[in-house]
Amino acid sequence: MKKLSVSVLLLAVGILSAQEQEKESKIEDVVIVGNRNAKRTKLETPVPVDVINIEKIQKSSPQTTVQDLLNYVIPSFNSVRQSASDGTEHIDPVTLRGMGPDQVLVLVNGKRRHTTSLVNYQNTVGNGSVGTDLSTIPVIAIDRIEVLRDGAAAQYGSDAIAGVINIILKKNIGGSASLNYGISGRNDGETYQAGANYGTSLGKKDSYINLSLQLNYRGKTTRTQNHNLDIFGDNFAYDFASDPATARASDDAIIQQRGLSRDDFNFQIGDAQIKQAQLFFNSEYPVNDQFKLYSFGGFSIKEGQGYGFRRLPSETSNNVYSIYPNGFQPTLGSKVYDFSYAIGAKYNKNDWFLDLSNTFGSNTFDYDVSNTVNASLGAKSPTSFDAGAHNFLQNTINLDVSKNIKNFNIAFGGEFRFEQYEIKSGEEASYSRYDIYGNVVTASTPSADIVGAGGSQSFIGFSPTNALSKSRHSTAIYGDVSYDLDKKLDVDLAGRFENYSDFGSTLNGKLAVRYEFIKNYAIRAAVGTGFRAPSLQQQYFNNSYADISTTGNSIVTKGIFNNDSEAAKALGFDKLKQETSVNASVGFTLKPLNKLSITLDGYLIKVKDRIVITSNITDDRLAVYGVESGRFFANAVDTETKGVDLVVAYDWRLGGGNLNINLAGNYTETKITDFHFPANLQTPQNEFFGPDQINIIESLSPKTKATLGLNYGIGKFNFLVRNTYFGKVIRDGYPFGGVQEFAPKVVTDVSVGYDFTKNINLTIGANNVFDVFPDLQIYENSYYGVFKYAPVQMGTLGNYFFGRLNFTF
């Protein structure tokens, strides 16, 4: 009996006729990721895999990016837009099974994709991690996405502790296009998306080249209290001042003198503005029946515009009155360039399959700060600055060999990977502090004649001291064997040895078993070891940044120091080493009825020496570096994650149409089981890794998340109703705020689609149609009333309405 899909993506399958679903499922059910035996379907794999048909779900879903689509169809996947968080506003961190963004490996067409050059350090989800920017891959270029929800470092190497996301690009002949417009219920956050995909033959049977172009625009949103300062009462940024009452009186006098009102002081907090263009390709050319050449890749350019804290007129150390008599709110602009390509050859001889490839990727993040000042320059200060950039590139050479011999499939191969990370300094005024004579002031050349703070306000530029270029390489060999006995007993055994030039070697293995004890009823289990190499970004990122002082009454300069720095050595920090992990899972797959499938999988993930960024450490030994406090990357904690995934899918012929019912849920709990303090560090735990950092790992993401989707297709109509449950989260505002629990919420998506012709479809609908928000923040956690809502659970967009035209030709 043919195995049918259990993916939550079947929420949108009603858009096709039952006959079309039956035909296409034969292809969609086959799984590539997680093993090198391409003959298995989803219900036959010894570990859980979701296969998501992007074209189907994207037609009827309100979401327009890869990470947003996955967020609403895979409960163990989480992604929330952040606000006022520097670069993290522009690249959304994503997580799987409660682990970090850097513990999820992303592949494209089965080949390792590069990460971003950005380090998340603004106390968001994934703090201290480096993830992969899924938004750089245009949705219109994707055929399907496979999500392996199990540790796979023994098969794919570093970063695969939580699982693997494999993005399969389109290779079809023909064309399609999509036009999308959306806007929030508050008349902001407008989105425009236009995409086109076209595939054609290269003049030979089974050859193709598939091209995709997509343009995106997302407007900013404002989610502050009443959009003005009046609601802040006697607080707000005045609390940052040493004498709040005097500061407020001074500002009020300025406002009155200039004939303004307090409503003129809007504070922009919400989603950043994003503009993006993407061009991708996927191609293959068979030279003969045994030899094929292939290539794929693409380019993405993203421009973002986010906002920092407002500097008020009375903040003389951070504002220049002659330039901004009403104060100012700095703007952080980004330009993110992402480039990738792969080229390879496949050879098949006597059922031996060889695949030799080279995959390259790079990510560059440029910072521009505008509507700001270097206060130490006074009236001579520019109001915009080039604040520098960081870049990461990766080149991977792979040789994969496999052969199927009766019930056995054997595979082995090798990999060589080169990585490079760079920080480039900005212009001098973006990072320097000057005295009243225009001379640069440093720790070695102090001066008492200084008017204000140095560097560009809100985001201090990278200095030549921060600038660096570091590289490393790694070599790996792997082997795996799978045994299938008439689809009753499946056994997979995999091992991988890897050597890194900067920290040494690691050996990992995995065993996975599936046994079908009754037809259509099976038990599956897996156990394996894993690792994650410290990224070059974590090893070498360093900068100075503006933040609230440890006393909470001013904005000061703090620092992040890399593990090679003199500061790290002085405080006794060791060099980073790899994280190591043990993964175990056990589950059931059931198909009691022809149209009903159920999977239930439990898992346990233990990580030792997990790499995190510390809290702000105050130490007299850091004063020489011109910062109030410092943060460091360290193998500081051990964690244990346990959870369960449930997916139920049922197709029902109803009233002449087809109803698909899909229920998917996840429960994940992560606990820190141990701390590792540097022996020579004399600081309490609250400074080394405080309650706010523990909160980010343990309880800032929902432990429970579930989706119930109903999709009904009849004739030319398609109807979608999807409810997504976001469990409670906890936010700890330490050291300035309190502990707040955010109650569970349910978000409802609806859409109606109509096929005007075989080739033209119109869909209209809404995300979060009932305008559900996280609970209002308690005052002490809201930065004095600025952040009305925390960016948790479903985020702060509110309801969002869209219309989409889809074309095929």
Automatic annotation (TrEMBL):
> Keyword Magnesium: yes or no?
no
User: Which keywords does this chain's UniProt record carry?
Assistant: Cell outer membrane, Membrane, Receptor, Signal, TonB box, Transmembrane, Transmembrane beta strand, Transport
First-listed, main subcellular location of the protein, grouped into a coarse class: membrane
Q: Which Gene3D superfamilies match?
A: TonB-dependent receptor, beta-barrel domain, TonB-dependent receptor, plug domain
Q: Give the highest taxon in the source lineage.
A: Bacteria
Q: Does the keyword Transcription apply?
A: no
Q: What membrane topology term does the record carry? A: Multi-pass membrane protein
Residues covered by the TonB-dependent receptor-like beta-barrel domain: 302-769
Q: Which residues form the signal peptide?
A: 1-18
Q: Which Pfam families match?
A: Plug, TonB_dep_Rec_b-barrel
Q: Where in the cell is it found?
A: Cell outer membrane
Recorded coiled-coil stretches: none
Residue span, TonB-dependent receptor plug domain: 42-164
Family membership noted in the UniProt record: Belongs to the TonB-dependent receptor family.
Q: What is this protein called?
A: TonB-dependent receptor
Q: State the species of origin.
A: Chryseobacterium ginsengisoli
